[in-house]
């Protein structure tokens, strides 16, 4: 084994770039006591809207809440179906059920492992009210076709952009295509907080007002002020301390995403496609490569042998949502592409401070192991 290990993810280097700046801002929050909401949150919400190309941002506690609140804010609930790709993190389907609706699972493209217009159409029924397009791994699906298809079917388009901060399709950033875009800022994301955090972006002023009310216990303007609760709400507010972190990191996001693109180009240069198939990126998109995913045969053996060489990996995701125990009741037959990919997906090291030499070492080791040379 090499003396130097290559971790799957290392967020410490990125955090080190911003820690001094964040400490100064945290001192100000300690002075003002604006720990929940406040000026830091207002500032980040404005910055994030400007970055994404939308009119409004609603900061929330996490990415799952972002999805849940959007569904409720759009009036989606009991009796409604929402199309969800089966190849996604469970939170996408979870949010639909939490809103009282039913997930309607769709298969994905064999090359991108993302939703397509065709799989969207195949999943739609008369009860379908919305579709959640998931920008998995930091890549957008063909949003031109998906938006057109959703409109033709009379469906509300929602974006799950939890892994796609800064990714674009035809020059437009993730979150700006549908009725709303939902983001997670979990620490390992391209734009990550120092804990849980999330946001919703939209250009719908009325939806924004509803979301701001729901996230804050249903508070509305009324004669009882702070105690006027006009709708059933919940507690999902963005903390000021996390907003400070996000603002500091946002100033570096474009540079960090550029590094990820360079690293992915190195993976494409060195990985042998005959033994490991990198997830494809469509010509109209510019991904931000939250994850570097390949499909390989005998995935668990390959992963174990890479670990023996000091190379960390992950799996995103080993179980499609429609076969998970809590979601089986919503499944409607087999989804062969998602099911096959679940057994083959392997996530390679990917973070902005990774070096090109590290990527080459990972790729060479992968070529050998996946090709059977390390057996």
Characterize this entry briefly.
The protein has helices at about 10-30, 40-50, 65-75, 90-100, 115-125, 145-150, 205-215, 240-270, 300-310, 335-340, 355-370, and strands at about 55-60, 80-85, 100-105, 130-135, 155-160, 170, 170-175, 180-185, 200, 275-280, 285, 290-295, 345-350.
List the helices and strands and how they pair.
Layout: H1 12-32, H2 39-52, E1 56-60, H3 63-73, E2 81-85, H4 91-98, E3 102-106, H5 117-123, E4 128-134, H6 143-152, E5 156-160, E6 168-169, E7 172-173, E8 180-184, E9 198-202, H7 205-215, H8 240-270, E10 277-278, E11 285-286, E12 292-295, H9 299-308, H10 336-342, E13 345-348, H11 356-370
Helix pairs in contact: 1-8, 2-8, 3-4, 3-7, 8-11, 9-11
Low-confidence stretches: none
Global outline: globular
| Secondary-structure arrangement, i.e. CATH architecture of the largest domain | 3-Layer(aba) Sandwich
Structural class comes to: alpha/beta
Number of folding domains? Answer: 2
On the 0-100 scale, what is the average pLDDT? Answer: 96
Strand order of the largest sheet: 1-9-8-5-4-2-3
Q: What's the N-to-C terminus distance?
A: 15 Å
What does the main sheet amount to? 7 strands, mixed
Amount of beta strand: 5-15%
Q: What oligomeric state best describes the polypeptide chains here?
A: single chain
CATH H-level superfamily of the largest domain: Type I PLP-dependent aspartate aminotransferase-like (Major domain)
Radius of gyration: 21 Å
CATH topology description of the largest domain: Aspartate Aminotransferase, domain 2
**Element-by-element helix/strand order:** HHEHEHEHEHEEEEEHHEEEHHEH
What share of residues is helical?
25-40%
CATH class of the largest domain: Alpha Beta
Summed up, the helix count is 11
Kindly state the number of beta strands: 13
